[in-house]
Design brief:
This is ATP-binding protein. The chain is built from 3 helices and 9 strands, in the order E-H-H-E-E-E-H-E-E-E-E-E. It is of the alpha+beta class. The strands form 3 sheets. It has a 5-stranded antiparallel β-sheet, covered by helices on one side. Strands 4-9 form a two-stranded parallel ribbon. Helix 1 packs antiparallel against helix 2. The C terminus is likely disordered.
Length: about 180
């Protein structure tokens, strides 16, 4: 008997202000249909929020907002992918910016720059890679897969922890830690 492929879902979004909220709503809907535990859904929604915020910022860097139906509108798209793989839920965001993500050390008074720190702290693993044949990169993060069965949480046998964020920052070879200048 053949085994069904792992669940996957993709959503193309336009890099506008409401894209982050739409990505969170989509994530909650998809993961709840897959039977993922509500606590895990909340963690993945946070990761998706940070990853999509970075994508929207990269897409709109240095651009003034134009009316949506204007011929001067240069708004671009990015893609959110959700999948269950190897005992984890993976959220990936592809954008057209080829620069690798940089994990910054920010001061306590900084008003931004903590997104990748949150991703690193709340995920089991995270990283990025360039996209072959297309412009840009994919930034991804994984959390342990926890399913709801018979009213209780069951953790995947491949996952060592239940609902605990990672304790150490583990950037991939592409990610760098730099002080915020």
């Amino acid at each position: 008997m053949s085994q069904a492929p792992p669940p996957r879902d993709r959503l193309m979004l336009v890099g506008t202000r409401n894209a982050v909220g739409l990505a969170r709503l989509h994530t909650a809907d998809v993961l709840s249909r897959w039977g993922v535990h509500p606590d895990s859904i909340e963690t993945v929604k946070l990761l998706v929020s940070e990853l999509t915020t970075n994508a929207v910022r990269c897409l709109n860097m240095g651009q003034e907002e134009s009316p949506p139906y204007s011929e001067h509108n240069t708004t671009q798209t990015f893609e959110l992918a959700l999948e269950i793989t190897n005992g984890a839920i993976r959220a990936s965001v592809w954008d057209r910016d080829s620069r690798p993500p940089i994990l910054k050390q920010v001061g306590v008074d900084a008003t931004g720059g903590r997104g990748l720190f949150i991703v690193a702290a709340m995920s089991r693993r995270w990283g990025s890679y360039p996209v072959c044949g297309l412009p840009g990169k994919v930034v991804w993060a994984e959390v342990p897969l926890v399913l709801v069965t018979h009213g209780r949480a069951d953790i995947s046998s491949d996952s060592p922890r239940l609902l605990q964020p990672a304790r150490a920052v583990r950037p991939t070879r592409d990610a760098q830690v730099r002080p915020d200048l």
